[in-house]
Design a protein that fits this description.
Order of helices and strands of chain A: HHHHHHH
Radius of gyration of chain B: 21 Å
Distance between the termini of chain B: 51 Å
Strand content of chain A: under 5%
Structural class of chain A: mainly alpha
Number of strands of chain A: 0
Largest sheet of chain B: none
Helix content of chain B: over 70%
Oligomer: heterodimer
Chain lengths: 188, 190
């Protein structure tokens, strides 16, 4: 049953993630954290972090990681196949339609209308990750020990490096990791 | 070139691209073009643009969709398999290894500290992407799109409405708008 659940969960993620890699993030969160509880919100934040630091699309990384955690390598295979299947079907149909009619206007019109919703949902998922990063217990409360002021400083510094100094995102993320490690070693 | 050799070439190309591209699908589209248009001359420029449009219009990662559409064009269904396999194998192996190490090492001090710091960086990267995409929509002054963006956020974040329902609802709005625009265009012509 676990295999079937993994397959169906990632099939849905694959079928509805329109608009590039980040678009899959809210769908992964919904299936993996909210619906099936295969990962906690903190575990999901770890997953996104790992996926961002490694090559390959975030959803393939997620399918492999979650499949492995839930049911070992066969689980990872099943989840990945589930995720890929809608793409294969959709792309082939579109390529075929395109060869016949040479027009993708309706599809592109729909896609353009989807973009604002996709941005909004990526923002919602990103906000979830930011909150688990800034607050130890995952809820917004400024009780002593819960609010991670160093995480906020790193977050703001990373924003400046990304937007102001135009640093490479991988470099920024790795830099944040190393900075936190050094800070913890220094405070020990 | 014989068929087996061609399939192998597709496989190796997508494998290579997938293993060495960090940071999203748009990079891979450029690399696919370099490989199959500029280097191998298997696809011409204009056709490649259309293929990118197809890859972007389909659900799923652009890297995988690009591999599918290129594989299909060059060698039919076996080409799809060769392309997809190549695109999937590198992240699959890397994440399987990491998944193993994650379970074993996630409680280590250094690993925890690195992950914790990187999460701040990842949050910043995501927010920066949202800023770029969102400001494009606000600047377009398309009030329907701006309203959809705000409504989708409220409904998703505060009311916890299922992401798939939101996508389906917005897709219906998109279909209606596209039809209305086509009709208006048609009316102008007549």
């Amino acid at each position: 049953m676990t295999y079937l659940h993994l397959f169906l969960a990632f099939l849905q993620i694959g079928a509805f993630s329109f608009g590039g890699g980040y678009a899959a993030m809210p769908l992964i969160q919904e299936q993996v954290v909210t619906k099936h509880a295969w990962l906690s919100q903190a575990g999901f934040a770890d997953l996104v972090t790992i996926a961002e630091m490694t090559p390959g699309p975030i959803a393939i990384n997620a399918a492999t990681f979650v499949g492995n955690q839930v049911a070992g390598i066969p689980g990872a295979v099943v989840a990945t196949i589930g995720f890929i299947l809608p793409s294969c079907i959709f792309v082939t149909i579109l390529a075929w339609l395109y060869q016949r009619y040479r027009k993708l206007a309706l599809m592109q019109g729909v896609l353009k209308s989807l973009r604002p919703a996709v941005v909004a949902m990526i923002f919602a998922a990103g906000l979830g990750i930011l909150i688990t990063t800034l607050f130890l217990n995952g809820t917004i409360s400024f009780v002593f020990g819960n609010f991670q002021y160093r995480a906020l400083i790193l977050f703001l510094a990373a924003l400046v490096c990304l937007r102001g100094l135009k640093w490479n995102p991988i470099l920024v993320m790795a830099g944040c990791g190393v900075a936190e490690l050094i800070a913890q070693l220094a405070l020990k | 070139m014989n068929r087996a050799k061609k399939l192998f070439r597709i496989f190796i190309s997508t494998l290579y691209l997938s293993a060495f591209t960090f940071g999203g699908g748009y990079v891979i589209v450029t690399l696919l073009k370099q490989k199959f248009v500029d280097e191998l001359h298997w696809i011409d420029d204009e056709e490649m643009l259309d293929m990118v449009a197809i890859a972007q219009s389909s659900p799923g990662p652009i890297a995988v969709n690009g591999a599918i559409v290129v594989g299909y064009k060059l060698a039919g269904v076996p080409g799809i398999l060769a392309g997809v396999l190549g695109a999937v194998i590198p992240p699959f192996i890397i994440l399987t290894a990491i998944s193993f190490f994650y379970e074993t090492f996630k409680d280590l001090f250094a690993v925890q500290a690195l992950l914790k710091g990187m999460k701040s960086g990842v949050s910043a990267v995501i927010m920066s992407v949202v800023w770029d995409m969102g400001s494009g929509i606000v600047k377009s002054k398309d009030w329907v799109n701006i309203a959809v963006m705000i409504a989708a956020f409220v409904v998703n974040y505060f009311l916890k409405v299922n992401v798939i329902f939101i996508i389906l609802a917005v897709a219906v709005i998109g279909i209606l708008r596209t039809f209305l625009q086509e009709k208006r265009k048609g009316g102008e012509k007549a």
